[in-house]
Write a structure and sequence with these properties.
The protein is an alpha+beta fold. It has one domain. It contains three helices and six strands, in the order H-E-E-E-H-E-E-E-H. The protein has helices at 2-14, 52-55, 93-104; strands spanning 20-25, 28-34, 38-45, 62-69, 76-79, 88-90. Strands 1-2-3-4-5-6 form a six-stranded antiparallel beta sheet, covered by helices on one side. The longest helix is centred in the N-terminal third of the chain and has 13 residues, at 2-14. The radius of gyration is 17 Å and the shape is globular. 28% of the residues are buried.
């Protein structure tokens, strides 16, 4: 019984879908999260960070998010927030990031991307 319990615990640990990673740069915080059904990348502009004065546009404020199904093969959905209504769908991560940058009023190159989110898109 102990061996089965150890195996079950290891299996549960390897299938944990609550993964968070965060990157902050240029006054923007990006948080990657996995739920049971989606991979989400949410951006919040107007946060304090060490690089905020370097390149960020001072007027950048607001939120935007990119979501994809947990399997990672569906189109990317751009939303005003992680739980908000879909604004647009894109095949490519770059196109979704461009839309997010427009929503936040910054350059796409100012958006920090957590490493866990770099493979989003089709």
């Amino acid at each position: 019984m102990t061996e089965d319990a150890d195996t079950d615990a290891a299996a549960a640990a390897s299938t944990n879908t609550n993964t968070n990673t965060t990157a902050t740069a240029n006054g923007i915080r990006a948080t990657y999260d996995e739920t049971e059904t989606e991979r989400r990348l949410e951006f919040v502009a107007g946060v304090d960070d060490e690089d905020a004065d370097a390149t960020a546009t001072p007027r950048a404020t607001g939120t935007a998010a990119i979501a994809q199904n947990i399997e990672g093969y569906a189109m990317l959905k751009v939303r005003p927030t992680a739980d908000g209504d879909e604004l647009e769908r894109y095949y490519g991560f770059d196109m979704a990031l461009d839309h997010v940058a427009d929503l936040l009023g910054v350059s796409q190159h100012d958006l920090p991307i957590p490493e866990a989110a770099t493979d989003m898109g089709m």
